[in-house]
Write a structure and sequence with these properties.
globular, 2-enoyl-CoA Hydratase, Chain A, domain 1
């Protein structure tokens, strides 16, 4: 009895309970419609749901690979400001939050900058990463925008910024808010050099980012259904205690009210930027510029 109880029965239970070993990253559930998507199909579709057209949030590497000719580009080294200048701590130390965010990302902070060709035009592209502490704007993001602007002026190249942020980084207090005027001055430097500055607003673009460089573009593009605002709809609704219009603060609403120039699907983004950059830099393009929303 002991042999059956102590050896055979545990073996049988182990076999019955044994789970089939399959990777847990083969499938992705759409955050909008709930459809289960095969990850390879989702990647091939540029992380856009084929069922409901929902644009998933993506990081800098995916943006760069999709935009530059042949996925070839050079990453620009960014300044590294002092970490945790305020010695901030809430439920966790700020330094611990940074370590955790960096462990999930290949970049040191919520921005990356690259230089390469889009069509016939050498271009500087800066991409905010919402997956890194909500894309929040701290000193590192400010330094990244300034470095991107300086590189654009040095190379006589246009600057394109993909914004995605939950606003200023609270752990850096007033130092975070100071990045609003600093980045505004950097953008003016690009414009003074008579170089194009294009902003692509992605979901979400909010807070101090919207109140500074994200709304200073020569051309404003947005991805479909992106949340673009200063204060979010829930805050506004609770403040004024009124029902908000349907689709309030989404790309389509802003386009209708004159705050955007166009809405461009992710699969068309590279071609549209190529058209605009060729036109603005007075270089021959491969595609005719057409009006669309």
């Amino acid at each position: 009895m002991n042999w059956l109880t102590n050896y055979v029965r545990p073996k049988i239970r182990a076999v019955l309970k044994q789970k089939k070993e399959t990777p847990d990253n083969l499938w992705h559930k759409c955050k909008n419609c709930g459809q289960l998507l095969y990850i390879k199909d989702l990647e091939a579709n540029l992380h856009v749901c084929p069922h409901c057209d929902y644009h998933e949030r993506i990081g800098p590497r995916q943006r760069f690979d999709n935009l530059f000719n042949g996925g070839e580009y050079t990453l620009i080294d960014l300044p590294k400001p002092k970490e945790d200048p305020l010695k901030f701590k809430d439920q966790k130390k700020y330094t611990d939050r940074l370590k955790a965010a960096r462990a999930r990302s290949e970049f040191d902070d919520a921005i990356a900058v690259a230089y390469g060709k889009i069509g016939n035009v050498n271009t500087v592209v800066a991409v905010q990463n919402f997956l890194f502490m909500g894309g929040s704007m701290g000193m590192a993001v400010g330094e990244g925008i300034i470095a991107a602007a300086q590189h654009a002026v040095e190379k006589k190249a246009p600057l394109v910024i993909f914004s995605a942020a939950g606003g200023a980084r609270m752990q850096e207090g007033i130092l975070s808010l100071m990045q609003m005027p600093r980045t505004t001055v950097a953008i003016e430097m690009v414009k003074d050099a008579k170089l194009p500055y294009i902003v692509v607003l992605t979901d979400p673009t909010t807070g101090g980012v919207t109140a500074s460089y994200a709304m200073l573009g020569d051309v404003h593009i947005a991805e479909p259904n992106a949340l673009i605002c200063f204060a979010g709809p829930r805050v506004i609704k609770d403040t004024i205690r009124e029902e908000l219009p349907e689709g309030f603060q989404r790309s389509e609403y802003l386009l209708e009210h004159g705050m955007l120039d166009m809405i461009v699907h992710r699969k068309d983004m590279r071609n549209k930027l190529e058209q605009l950059l060729s036109l603005l830099m007075k270089q021959p393009g491969t595609l005719a510029l057409t009006h669309d929303t």
